[in-house]
């Protein structure tokens, strides 16, 4: 990983030097063929009357995915953050789930920007710096979420299968240190977005937010793109997927042998977690690899214009499934939520009944007839 990161930094430095030494082509004058990378990018044709008229069925479905991820992910992860961060005592498990929920929460919180982008026919009205920041935050929290999923699987395996090692090294302090390393790693992987993301205004005054790899060196463009994609694939998909499969497989075997668990609850929970991760993230990385071939085959552009937003939407869905699969199915969490909701409802009903009683008393006192004494008359 260090070698890949070092190579990537060299590429970025080279791009930065070329940025000042060479006169770059104005983005507003660039043609369709000038864009060498099409991530999150759709360029309308001259025949399109408006950007919105060019939306395909795949784009509409992707908008549905984004909306579902936002509507379910924000409250779901917020509930987890509330309980793990403010209600429960700090432990190794709560810290893992707290960080996972924070990553997913920030991830889905910025979805309205991308929903607007797609709904407006891939027109970005928010400016270049928000284009950079939105892409960086999305990548940062996306990979932080994936990494925390991976370490949660490792933590579960170590806690149940290696109790001695767990008792010695599974501490809150070590968990905090590992959490910091995870956030830093995710920031390194997402960092190039701050440099490469750019905006350009083209046909029909449509502004796109895309990866600008242009330094008039095709080999450097291809090298940069390949490094970014393969680093993301290796550390954001293959490593987490293999780790989860191995850890959970060994965990099921060990638990079954020791007859610690008599029900199939653990098995189905683990299966759901792996399947959800595989289904949500596999299309995203497949289209990322296909995108590499777009440099040599223009016929892939139509496929990518539909496939990338759709596969990205599936990836977003994983962020609203995480609190459901990992926390909300927990009996302890369910009991805590029920008790809290019950307390809130009781308090609300008590206040309503109390306010109603006071109102009745005031009304009765106002409407009661006044009796004057004879002496007063």
Automatic annotation (TrEMBL):
**UniProt KW Aminoacyl-tRNA synthetase keyword:** no
Could you tell me the membrane topology recorded for this protein?
Answer: Multi-pass membrane protein
Q: Tell me where in this chain the G-protein coupled receptors family 1 profile domain is found.
A: 76-326
Q: Out of the domains of life, which is the source?
A: Eukaryota
Q: Which UniProt keywords apply?
A: Cell membrane, Disulfide bond, G-protein coupled receptor, Glycoprotein, Membrane, Receptor, Signal, Transducer, Transmembrane, Transmembrane helix
What Gene Ontology terms describe what this protein does at the molecular function level? Answer: adipokinetic hormone binding; adipokinetic hormone receptor activity; complement receptor activity; G protein-coupled receptor activity
> Could you name the Gene Ontology cellular component terms for this entry?
nucleoplasm; plasma membrane
Which GO biological process categories is it annotated with?
A: glucose homeostasis; inflammatory response; phospholipase C-activating G protein-coupled receptor signaling pathway; positive regulation of cytosolic calcium ion concentration
Q: Quote the InterPro entries the UniProt record gives.
A: CML2, Formyl_rcpt-rel, GPCR_Rhodpsn, GPCR_Rhodpsn_7TM
So where does this one cross the membrane?
Answer: 57-83, 95-115, 135-154, 175-196, 227-253, 265-287, 307-329
Q: Kindly indicate where the leader peptide sits in this chain.
A: 1-16
Task: Fetch the Pfam families from UniProt.
Answer: 7tm_1
Q: Does the keyword Nucleotide-binding apply?
A: no
How is this protein named in the record?
A: Chemerin-like receptor 2
What is the scientific name of the source organism? Taeniopygia guttata
Q: What is the lineage of its organism?
A: Eukaryota, Metazoa, Chordata, Craniata, Vertebrata
The gene behind this protein is CMKLR2
